[in-house]
Specification:
CATH superfamily of the largest domain: Immunoglobulins
Distance between the termini: 67 Å
CATH topology of the largest domain: Immunoglobulin-like
Strand order of the largest sheet: 2-11-10-6-7
Strand content: 25-35%
Number of domains: 2
Radius of gyration: 35 Å
CATH architecture of the largest domain: Sandwich
Shape: elongated
Number of helices: 7
Length: about 350
């Protein structure tokens, strides 16, 4: 997790609109005090300036020293709000009041006690599947009198949120597609009676080979082993089974819906994509693996081409500068040698 500590270099402060009006009033009061040589006006002017300076210091100290730490975000479906957990920590001995967390269209005000931290879920709308980066986050404050406005540099968490396709029920869920599903059904039925479930008291009709003899030796009671039979149903969620006239996004949304329904029914299923197949399985890891494949289908997960181009460009600039410096040195050395010979 990357931590962003707010120091003096990451903090800016300027007067608010009310602060500029306050400054104009100070200028007018200063002119009146000089013109009429009014001691009360001078006293009021100095008191108001002192209040403004103290307010500026308090506004600055209300944000400095805070830290932001991005946490891992959970994957969501397209159309839902993506949440980026961020921990705001106050490691100082003073409390912080009316600190705003702003990120794009998200904003939230918070209060922090000394040596306390608060978890903020920065929400962001989702418009396309794939990885979504969090919008830059900044902390702002106008506490205590609203004359000065303090804000920080923008902090962008390194964590990304994976956006799954939007589940759409366009075609009924396939019960079993093809011979692969039938073969899986048969193998699951054969192995179903071999899954251990627990122990139970012996009942008339139980098989002799299911009796747990070590327990009989200890307790002198007949105890049998109970097995759990797996559901023989399985599904082959295939890209090829979808109509050819469907768009890529509709196919991904339909497969996403089938994966969600298959997981709810606790059935074993496989995801058959072009040149990529996730074999029959069930459970949360298999569920998220299938959805991850659908979310990143045809999407470049490593979005860093611009940074690579920029780094190459800066490297070329450095080489050009080195060559120019070498030429200048060579020219200066040549001129020096000709001067000494003459």
């Amino acid at each position: 997790m990357s931590e962003f500590l707010i120091s003096r270099r990451e903090l800016y402060i300027l007067p608010t609109r009310m602060g500029w009006y306050f400054g104009l009033i100070m200028v007018a009061l200063f002119g009146i005090a000089i013109k009429f040589d009014n001691q009360a006006a001078f006293m009021m002017l100095f008191v108001l300036i002192s209040i403004a300076l103290v307010g500026m210091i308090y506004t600055h100290n209300n944000v400095i020293g805070l830290s932001l730490n991005g946490q891992t975000s959970n994957s969501v479906f397209l159309g839902q709000q993506a949440e980026f957990p961020v921990i705001v920590s106050n490691k100082s001995n003073r409390s912080r009041q009316a600190v705003w967390v702003i990120s794009g269209g998200f904003n939230k005000v918070m209060q922090l006690s000394p040596h306390a931290e608060q978890l903020v879920h920065v929400t962001q709308p989702t418009v396309q599947r794939g990885y979504l980066n969090c919008a830059p986050i900044s902390l702002t404050s106008m506490f205590p009198i609203g004359v000065f406005f303090c804000w920080t540099k923008r902090y962008t968490p390194k964590q990304r949120c994976l956006i799954y396709p939007q589940p759409l029920n366009l075609i009924p869920l396939p019960n079993d597609n093809g011979q692969a599903g039938k073969h899986e059904n048969q193998s699951a039925a054969q192995q179903g009676n071999e899954d251990y479930s627990g122990m139970k008291q012996y009942q008339q009709g139980d098989r002799i080979r299911d009796i747990h003899w070590p327990s009989v030796a200890k307790t002198n009671k007949l105890v049998t082993i109970e097995y759990e039979t797996l559901s023989p149903s399985s599904m082959n969620l295939s890209w090829q089974s979808l109509p050819a006239n469907m768009s890529v996004e509709d196919k991904l949304s339909q497969l996403c819906f089938w994966v969600v329904e298959a997981d709810k029914s606790a059935a074993r299923y496989q995801l058959d994509m072009p040149n990529h197949t996730i074999s029959y399985d069930s459970g949360p890891s298999h569920y998220h693996a299938c959805l991850r494949t659908l979310a990143l289908w045809g999407v470049d997960s490593d979005k860093k081409p611009k940074q690579d181009i920029a780094s190459r460009f800066t490297e070329k600039q450095r080489k050009l500068k080195r060559n120019l410096l070498r030429r200048k040195k060579a020219a200066s050395n040549a001129s020096d040698s000709t001067g000494t010979k003459s």
